[in-house]
What does this fold into?
Amino acid sequence: MPRLKPSKYTKWLLPLCAIAIACTIWQIQRYKTKHSYQQASVGYQHLSHMQASDNQKNFHQQATALSQAYPHTTYADLVAFQLTREAVQRQQWDKAGHYMQQVMRQGRTPIFRQLATLRYARILVEQQQPANALILLKKLEHSSLFALASLVKGDIYNLQNQKEKAEIAYKIALKYLPAHPLKQITQTKLSSIDYTPKLHNSHAQR
It folds into this structure.
């Protein structure tokens, strides 16, 4: 029996089928993502009403459930920040750090990941880990939160009694912070740096 020669169109059939399958899968994923966002939005609105009614116990349970059910949504990031604030108020630093590390790893937007990095650096300071906090803040040197990161650096250096480094960090923060009450706070911190020990040592050397 003679072997049939493939049609000149046959060689295009497989790529076209592959494209059609890929498009179908993309549409399904798009639908799932849209559906997830809709469900997460409804859940987040419910959480907002729950928080307004000061129902903290149920809020924490529902917030954790939403975060686990829709981990790759903006709403999960917002919930993580709320849970972090709650943990910080209770001085539960490990929990607060866990929530911020979660956003740092899988935050939906760069600004959320940067905010989580900044917040986690503050948490590390509370956990007596200023060196690790400074390492973390280096990641924000070229971000839109550069000024806020410099402010946190100033606070860390001040706690470590590294007055000159604190002064430099505060001045950088002042230079780039917009007109905001935080700028006045930074100026107050800069003005309150006490160089008395350094002056005392210079007199002793004389």
